[in-house]
Amino acid sequence: MKRKHRYVRFFLLILVSLPLTGCWSSKEIEDLGLIVGTSLDLETGDVSSEEQQDARYANRDLLTITNQLITSETTVSGTKEGSLPEKAYKNVSETSDAVLPTLRNMLLKIDKRSFAEHSKVIIIGEELASTINLKQSLDFFLRELEIRPSGLLLIAQNRASQALETNEPTKIPAFQLVEMMEGHERTTKILPPMTIAKLEGKLYSNSSFLLQNVTAEDGEVKFAGAAVIDGKTKKLRGFLNEGDLEGNAWITGDGKGGLVKGFDEQSGSPIVYEIISMKSKIVPHVDGDQISFTVKIQSEGRIAEHWVLLDKASDNRFLKKAEKVFEKEIERLVKNTLEKTQHEFQTDVSGFGTKLRIHYPKVWQKIKKDWDQTFSEVPITCEVDVTIKDYGTSGD
């Protein structure tokens, strides 16, 4: 009986060890170049000799694609004494008229197999986004199974490839951009992340929308407002600055946190309001052929900082006065944003058309084809209610 149990244990040991032999489709990490970021730019300057000699490229738009790679060589820690530190990444660029052939041409320049399943971000250059619609330029990335749908999409002012460079050799720009995007929970100057999965729905809805704008200069990268993407053309229409983006966050109620800086009317001293919560409701009104909207905004927050020496933050009169200051500032931000989206760009990026479609579907069917033109003319009023719930640990 003991011998029988011994055979059973031996058989089970062999059976359990079989799945531990390794991964059948394994790829050696030393042979891979992990793509962590990609930029796309419209090429207007000199191109490679192949394109120059081929007449078919004479009147075509060419793309310059830059892949940011991490290889076994770039991740080696430490440098030789007395030598300059090497970059933790490697950028490889190639130019052609379509994405996949361009990527395959990179095989002529690198000795690693490109692996894109860890890609974090795709950056589109300003000129490319203004010239070619996003549905065309991103078609490969929307179809490719190897590209993660959780990857982020950004628009770069000027050339996108500059956003994949940094002055800090130990940093990886693609990872930096992803980490910077997490700041949207603490400021209304950064948009909620737009992933490739979300973008596909936006492109097929024919609705205008915003993409986070990034600027790069001398190896320093900064988020600066948002790019306005026209729903009909799928092209870049223009840019909102940081203040405009704050106003849009109040219109949509999408912000999770942030600050509002106002000024005391008597002393001119600054008062800073920290947002605890923000809610917004866009209410459409239809009276015959007349369409209008009311944006109702509610927010609760705290006094984070104030420079008014004559008032105590705990005084009810001061709190009521501060609430009016912040309400007026929020109204100003909203008004400036609507001035730009309605009259300068004539593009609804805040969802007014969606609310009209939900509440008045028959009216929407009549005007949806020319909605952007109609949107530029409709009156929009704003009602703001701010409640200060806290003034910090200091009563004075």
Protein model, in words:
This protein is α/β, with parallel strands linked by helices and 396 residues long. It folds into 2 domains: 30-74 and 84-240, no CATH class; 246-390, Nutrient germinant receptor protein C, domain 3 (GMP Synthetase, Chain A, domain 3, 2-Layer Sandwich), CATH 3.30.300. The chain is 31% helix and 29% strand. The protein has 13 helices and 13 strands. The chain has helices spanning 2-17, 49-53, 99-105, 126-131, 134-137, 139-143, 173-181, 196-205, 242-252, 316-344, 352-359, 361-367, 371-375, and strands at residues 32-43, 62-70, 90-96, 113-115, 121-125, 152-156, 209-217, 220-229, 236-240, 259-263, 270-287, 290-306, 380-390. The strands form 2 sheets. Strands 1, 2, 3, 4, 5, 6, 7, 8 and 9 form a 9-stranded mixed sheet that branches. Strands 10-11-12-13 form a 4-stranded mixed sheet, sandwiched between helices. β10 (259-263) and β11 (270-287) form a beta hairpin. α9 crosses α10 and α11 (352-359) packs across α12 (361-367). It is globular, with a radius of gyration of 27 Å. The relative contact order is 0.09.
Strand content: 25-35%
State the end-to-end CA separation: 85 Å
Integer-rounded radius of gyration: 27 Å
Supply the number of structural domains.
Answer: 2
By DSSP, the count of extended strands is 13
- Biggest sheet, in brief? 9 strands, mixed
Helical segment count: 13
**Strand pairing plus helix content: what structural class?**
alpha/beta
Mean pLDDT: 86
Q: Point out poorly predicted stretches.
A: none
